[in-house]
Design goal:
Helix 14 packs parallel to helix 18. By secondary structure, the protein is an alpha/beta fold. Strand 3 and strand 4 form a beta hairpin. The radius of gyration is 26 Å and the shape is globular. The strands form three sheets. The chain has a five-stranded parallel beta sheet with strand order 2-5-1-6-7. A four-stranded mixed beta sheet has the order 8-9-10-11, covered by helices on one side. It is built from 19 helices and eleven strands.
Length: 478
């Protein structure tokens, strides 16, 4: 017997509830029926009924609609905001057979997003080319009223659940991009099915930093100075959470050094250095670890050092672009390349001239295509495209955060100071000689030098703002 008869998603406008609903509806046996108790419509703005119950019927007897939701096949539920029919709270909150899902988001983010949506009239986005942006003024008094209503509603939910001995499933806005959390939510609801991908129809709206979305940002900072927990100046992060990528780790043949490579990093050069350090071949390095075998290695190598290497975002993106998109051999993404050409205007070759044109793919065309790729990356890293965010071009910060789930790197080396960083590592494990560093750190550097300029730099900063901030990068030639 299922532990729940129905469910409710407690949320607010602009917290990601549409996206959560879309993902819930991908599970067999689950159905979220919109805002079933919105006082101005039933279910959705253009709907006339929910499960045959009309808005006048619901107004006369909200219990009748709840009974219909409970009786429908599968496990059904609805989204509920603080200004919805308060009579439903008396019914659902105290009912232990009703599963409670609480969706939360940074209140400043949701408030500004709500103001932008009101200004543009765009409440959902399914095609990034139709995205509307607008700077809005921040009204401190209005926000304080918004916060008061939000906090009162959250307190009511929490206290009622505590007093009735119930628990809720809490989902943060950032969790919506985590397929593991979505499958865990379905499991908690008692549904056996699972999904292998998130809904790709809805796109992230307004992914820009807060300073670009608020017209009077300085005044907003002053008004909220006592509430610095909102972290207003951060660069938004909408990338999916990642695992530690343990099978890619590379250990020295004899020395207690473990390299944690990033997919578009200078892996060949570092592996050459590790091999030279122990005077062996690259084939003698150890890789292909599992969590168990890696733990065994760590225990067996007392005094070990783990390290990784980050590179300038322009170099990072250019490597991913050349190796995964422009190239047509092993390791390239032919299907994604075709989508980038068709949907995102990235005119790259496919074993010859650019398709459907007579343009020769020279360095001028390479620069144009790379700029289009960087524009795509900005959208892709903001969850505004249907294309996956591959580890080859994900932000390096997100990859390191995934690695930290297993273990932290002792040293995060920068490619432009790699020789000195590796020398210090060698010294930490007692080596007095430093093998030469291969010139293979960036075999694409000559090609990049021909196309790099201020426009390329700015496009990379737009796409990888978090990496510039986290690792202290400046312009490539600074």
């Amino acid at each position: 017997m299922s532990k729940f008869d129905y469910f409710v998603v407690f949320a607010e406008m602009r917290t990601g509830s549409n996206f959560l609903e879309a993902n819930l509806n991908m599970f067999d046996g689950l159905a979220c029926l919109g805002e079933a108790f919105n006082p101005h419509f039933i279910g959705y703005p253009n709907s006339s009924d929910v499960l045959g119950v009309t808005q006048p019927d619901r107004e006369a007897d909200p219990q009748a609609l709840i009974d219909r939701i409970k009786a429908a096949p599968g496990l059904n539920g609805f989204r509920f905001f603080n200004d919805h029919d308060s009579r439903v709270l008396d019914i659902a909150l105290t009912d232990p057979r009703c599963a409670k899902i609480v969706l939360t988001r940074n209140p400043v983010d949701s408030f500004v997003s709500w103001k932008i949506a009101k200004s543009t009239g765009q409440w959902k986005l399914t095609n990034v080319t139709h995205a509307k942006s607008h700077q809005v003024p921040f009204d401190a008094a209005e926000f304080e009223g918004h916060m008061a209503a939000l906090q009162a509603f959250q307190t009511l939910i929490l206290n009622t659940l505590q007093r009735s001995g119930q628990t809720a499933f809490y989902v943060a806005y950032e969790d919506l991009q985590d397929i593991g959390v979505m499958n865990g939510l379905a499991l908690w609801l008692g549904v056996d099915s699972h999904i292998t991908a998130l809904n790709k129809k809805l796109k992230k709206q307004n992914p820009d930093p807060m300073a670009d979305k608020v017209a009077n940002f300085a005044q907003m900072e002053q008004a909220l100075a006592r509430m610095d927990r909102f972290n207003l100046t951060r660069t938004p992060n909408f990338e999916p959470r990642r695992g530690p990528l343990i099978p890619t780790y590379v250990a020295a043949a004899h020395s207690p050094l473990l390299y944690m490579p990033l997919k578009s990093g200078p892996t060949d050069a570092v592996q050459d250095w590790l091999a030279a350090l122990d005077q062996v071949g690259v084939a003698d390095l150890k890789t292909g670890f599992s969590q168990k075998t890696l733990r065994d290695w760590l225990r067996q190598h007392a005094g070990h050092r783990k390290f990784t290497v980050v590179r300038h975002p322009v170099v990072w993106a250019h490597t991913a672009f050349c190796d995964r998109i422009v190239a047509s051999g092993k390791g390239s993404f032919a299907e994604i390349r075709a989508t980038l050409r068709k949907v995102h205007g990235v005119e790259v070759p496919d074993g010859g001239p650019v398709p459907e044109t007579d343009v020769v793919y020279d360095m001028k065309a390479h620069r144009t295509a790379f700029l289009s790729f960087l524009k795509f990356l900005r959208n892709n890293l903001s969850a505004q495209t249907a294309v996956r965010t591959d580890a080859a071009w994900a932000s390096q910060l997100s990859l390191l955060q995934g690695m930290a789930d297993f273990g932290l790197a002792d040293v995060i080396a920068r490619e432009h100071t790699l020789r000195g960083d590796l020398a210090r590592l060698a010294g930490q494990i007692g080596r007095t000689t430093m093998p030469p560093l291969s010139e293979r750190t960036d075999p694409l550097s000559a090609r990049l030098a021909l196309i790099y300029d201020d426009m390329v730099e700015q496009a990379a900063q737009d796409a990888y703002g978090r990496d510039y901030e986290a690792f202290g990068f400046g312009p490539l030639r600074a």
